[in-house]
Amino acid sequence: MKTLICSVLCATALLTTPAVAQDKPAADTNMQILRDKIKADKRLLVAENMRLTESEAKPFWPIYDAYQKDLQQIDERLGKAIDEYANAYKSDTLTDGQAKKIINEAIAIEGSEAKLRETYAEKLARVLPGKKVARYLQIESKIRALVRFELASRIPLVE
């Protein structure tokens, strides 16, 4: 399981870090392949750890899929904020105004993620026992914490 978590972590971190200049169509194709692999690995990790009954699994997976789709939008926002910072950092042109804008966006992203988690906790509570809702949210939280840790270790401090 640790190997699976590490592969999901590494691959997810790659998706949200700034891309190195590549041939655009090849980079897009490679990123889509990577996204598909991450989705499959993460789904397997969740399935292995949730221990859902057949009657619980049927309503759970559509909610899971919708949540992942909504999380992807948040991850895209985060990726754009990281790209903006990376471009300014690399060119040594980060202004106080840009830094404030990036900070505000990062805070807004965290707020959006918390609101989304609350929304989906309510949806999950309608189809799963409380302990299984908590288990799923813990799994998701741990994966996202690992990704954020990886991102934090790769993003240099503002100069």
What does this structure look like?
This protein is an all-alpha fold. It has one domain (2-154). Helix content is 84%, strand content 0%. It contains five helices and no strands. The longest helix is centred in the middle third of the chain and has 37 residues, at 54-90. The protein is elongated. The model is unreliable at 13-22 (pLDDT under 50).
Topology of this structure?
Elements: H1 2-16, H2 24-50, H3 54-90, H4 96-125, H5 130-154
Helix pairs in contact: 1-2, 1-5, 3-4, 4-5
Task: Quickly describe the structure.
With 159 residues, the protein is mostly helical.
Task: Supply the key terms.
159 residues; mainly alpha; 5 helices
Largest sheet: none
Runs with pLDDT <50, length 5+? 13-22
Q: How many runs of DSSP E, i.e. beta strands? A: 0
Rounded to an integer in angstroms, the radius of gyration calculated over CA atoms is: 17 Å
Shape: elongated
Classify the secondary structure makeup into a structural class.
Answer: mainly alpha
Supply the number of structural domains: 1
Helix and strand run: HHHHH
Q: End-to-end distance, in Å?
A: 38 Å
